[in-house]
Write a structure and sequence with these properties.
Elements (H helix, E strand, L loop, with lengths): L1 E3 L17 E6 L10 H9 L2 E4 L5 H4 L7 E4 L11 H13 L3 E6 L9 H10 L4 E4 L4 H8 L13 E5 L12 H7 L2 E5 L5 H10 L7 E6 L7 E6 L3 H8 L5 E5 L6 H4 L11 E4 L7 H9 L3 E4 L3 E5 L4 H12 L4 E5 L2 H13 L4 H5 L5 E5 L2 H8 L14 H10 L6 E7 L7 H6 L3 E12 L3 H12 L5 E4 L2 H11 L8 E4 L2 H9 L3 E4 L5 H12 L2 H7 L4
Parallel strand pairs: 2-5, 2-6, 3-4, 3-5, 7-8, 12-13, 12-19, 15-16, 15-17, 17-18, 19-20, 20-21
Antiparallel strand pairs: 1-4, 8-11, 9-10, 9-11, 14-18
Helix pairs in contact: 3-4, 6-7, 10-20, 12-14, 18-19
The structure holds S-adenosyl-L-homocysteine (SAH).
S-adenosyl-L-homocysteine binds next to α5 and β11.
């Protein structure tokens, strides 16, 4: 068992003001994070501690806030799972500390999830609980393979059965009854007993040419399907090397997948990306990649920590407002823009007195995203260089200013050294004030899952939008084989940082999220989509 401890208050307050623990037994769906219920998603954000097992995908884990304690109670390769009784006791102990406990399970918690046993323990201990149903793999995995579990032309029922063998290796399944029902059969936990199941059905009179399928890692980027017949499925799935988790589906509806498959046909279907930007400006890229069908793991590698209180900024702004000649205010990141305005509020300095002053203010922004952020505060920059780099910004400002003008740069503590020299050469007075510093962080819960996925080649690319995201990622991941990583970078500087660690590097045409998405589509998009983008279709 692995536990991650973080500092967090152990108390939670109930609606009536009492301090009391509670357990939410929630289903997380079969893998695609989009299939999480709204209620479960809210609980992930609010829980004090989350107890989860092996079926929870990395994409889902990436939604757990860094400060939330997460307790893994699943199996590791070759290891045994945590015994059920121990899991029950963890839930009891955590709730008794007065914490909000989220017990997160794959699929639906009551479909072969042993959720009932956990609740019985809680009921015995008089611990309050709620159940949040989840989307079960038994219906969703076929759906993502283009197989409706019922269809008026084929079947009027479906049945969900466990293929889990008893201790003596036998199955507790009444095959005669199943064959007589003529419904679609869904077998969970059945990969290792596939042969017995298929033989059992045929021995009970099912025709060997009855369509059957095995569906692996359904709803995730790694989903695969093998469609055959009851007679041939075992051989076919061995050839394909099918592994758990997978379900076996038996019934005429299986033949529909050839016509109705869709998930892997999406522009980025079957692809998985790791995003490393700080969370607050990550959602746009993540959302767009998800819309195109990709699975997206958000693992912010850096966090910005505003410098507060910021007396040097107060002094610089006071001086700024007193300047008589021309003056410049320079921004080099969208985060810098929002931290700047937060700082004004904290310093109780009014924008009118800062910008009003005795001479006009010119504003420089390093790129379109920063210009966009300034726009949100009603400021339209005078200068945005064609090429997104500190050097080009310095050159552009120098070219548009007169000797002696005052340039106030508000940016990260570890900002690029390329910005000031062109300004100083032009004879400008430069004041470079740090607004925030970058802290490196990688969610420890995710780290282990991501290392394993990189090793298995399950992550198609990692996106980087600054040198600091590269450094944060490398610090967080530690000793791994970086040559296995395909890095999609926003610009030359970022690419240089990624190359230093041996990553394979691709660079977006422009420094924008649009260009990042375009680059990803060009490299990883479905061939059909790529052709369409090239105008060939
Ligand atoms: N409570 C879960 C099932 C738990 S039993 C649910 O409602 O889905 C675990 C079994 O579920 C696995 O052995 C496998 O048969 C099935 N399963 C879960 N997620 C799956 C997935 N993404 N793809 C294929 N099978 C899955």
């Amino acid at each position: 068992m692995m536990t991650e401890k973080h500092n967090r208050s152990d108390k939670s307050t109930a609606a009536d003001g009492r301090t009391g623990g509670k357990v939410w037994l929630a289903g997380a769906g079969p893998g695609d994070a989009g299939l999480l219920s709204v209620k479960a998603a809210e609980l992930i954000g609010k829980a004090d501690v989350i107890v989860y097992d092996a079926l929870i995908s990395a994409e889902l884990l990436s939604m757990i806030p860094n400060h939330t304690e997460a307790i893994y109670v699943g199996k590791h390769a070759g290891n045994h799972p945590v015994p059920q009784e121990e899991i029950n006791q963890i839930l009891v102990q955590e709730a008794k500390k007065g914490r909000k406990v989220l017990r997160l399970k794959g699929g639906d918690p009551f479909v072969f999830g042993r959720g009932g046993e956990e609740l019985e323990t809680l009921a015995r201990e008089k611990i309050p609980f709620e159940v949040v149903p989840g989307i079960t793999s038994s219906v969703a995995v076929p759906a993502y393979a283009g197989i409706p579990v019922t269809h008026r032309d084929f079947t009027s029922s479906f049945h969900v059965i466990t293929g889990h063998a008893r201790k003596d290796g036998t199955l507790n399944i009444d095959f005669d009854a199943l064959v007589r029902l003529k419904g679609t059969l869904v077998f969970l936990m059945s990969v290792s007993s596939m042969e017995q199941i298929l033989r059992g059905l045929m021995d009970a009179g099912m025709r060997p040419d009855m369509p059957a399928a095995v569906l692996e890692k359904g709803t995730t980027a790694g989903q695969r399907r093998v469609v055959a017949t009851v007679g041939t499925l075992k051989g076919e799935s061995e050839r394909a090397g099918v592994r758990t988790p997978a379900i076996i589906l038996v019934g005429k509806v299986c033949s529909l997948s050839e016509k109705l498959h869709w998930a892997e046909d999406r522009p980025l279907g079957g692809k998985q990306f790791l995003l490393t930007r700080p969370r607050r400006n990550m959602s746009s890229l993540a959302g767009r990649l998800k819309c195109l069908g990709a699975q997206v793991i958000e693992m912010p590698a850096i966090r910005t920590e505003p410098i507060s209180p910021n007396d040097p900024l107060r002094r610089a702004l006071t001086r700024f407002s007193e300047v008589c000649e021309g003056r410049w205010l320079i921004f080099t990141s969208p985060i810098g823009v929002s931290v700047f305005f937060d700082a004004l509020k904290e310093l109780q300095m009014d924008l009118r007195s800062v910008l009003g002053g005795r001479s006009g203010v010119k504003i420089g922004a390093i790129g379109s995203a920063t210009a966009e952020a300034l726009g949100g505060y009603g400021l339209i920059p005078d200068i945005v260089p064609e090429i997104y780099s500190a050097l080009e910004l310095g050159r552009a400002v120098a070219a548009h200013s007169d000797k002696g003008e005052y340039v106030l740069i508000v940016r990260a503590e570890e900002g690029s050294e390329d910005l000031a020299p062109p300004l100083e050469e032009r004879g400008l007075v430069v004041n470079d004030i740090p607004l925030y510093r970058t802290e490196y962080e990688v969610n420890p819960i995710l780290r282990e899952a991501v290392v394993r996925m990189i090793d298995n080649g399950e992550i198609d690319a990692v996106t980087f939008t600054s040198g600091s995201t590269v450094r944060g990622f490398v610090r967080g991941m530690g000793e791994i084989n970086y040559s296995k990583i395909s890095a999609v970078c926003i610009g030359e500087q970022t690419a240089r940082a990624a190359k230093e660690y041996g990553m394979r590097v691709e660079i977006a045409e422009k420094a924008s999220m649009d260009a990042m998405v375009e680059k990803i589509m060009e490299l990883f998009g479905n061939p059909r989509e790529r052709k369409r983008m090239d105008g060939k279709e």
